[in-house]
Design goal:
The protein starts with a helix and ends with a helix. It has one domain (3-48). The chain contains two helices and no strands. The protein has helices at 3-26, 31-48. The relative contact order is 0.16. 84% of the residues lie in helices and 0% in strands. The chain has 50 residues and is mainly alpha-helical.
């Protein structure tokens, strides 16, 4: 796995953990939860289309 892919995977793992935390604390429909989810979706899309 190239170095940039490792960095991207670390970011994905970090955002996934953040999404779980924010979702549990604020609820799944809270704007912060939705923002983190969208950020994670974007990163996952970038990773899957490379």
């Amino acid at each position: 796995m190239p170095f940039t892919d490792k960095i991207r995977m670390k970011k994905i793992e970090k955002l996934r953990s953040r999404l779980i935390y924010v979702g549990m604390e604020k609820g799944l429909t809270h704007p912060n939860t939705i923002k983190v989810s969208q950020d994670l979706d974007k990163l996952l899309n970038e990773y899957s289309t490379k």
